[in-house]
Amino acid sequence: MFFILNTFGLIISISTLFIFYNNIDPNVQFRDSEVLYVNNDNPNEKIIRQYDINWKTNKKEFFNNHVLDIGFFRIYKSYGIDIHKLNSNWK
């Protein structure tokens, strides 16, 4: 009985690892961020600039995101922000 359950669990574990391994994108090697703007009303809200480096071509891909930092946690509110359309609430 336990042999059948262990075999069934092993098959599920191996298939799950195979599925997750195929979903990992090997092109993204490095991610960094810098703070561009901070909200005047809430200093935890920030516009950050991030980039990914493709390890094959060694080219940077830049994008701006609206985030909320709460302690160790970072909540992404929106992606691909156009910084030219920000109101005067950001410094």
From TrEMBL:
Keyword Transmembrane: yes
Keyword set includes Membrane: yes
Sequence intervals crossing the membrane: 6-24
Entry keyword set: Membrane, Transmembrane, Transmembrane helix
Domain of life: Bacteria
Identification of the protein by name: Uncharacterized protein
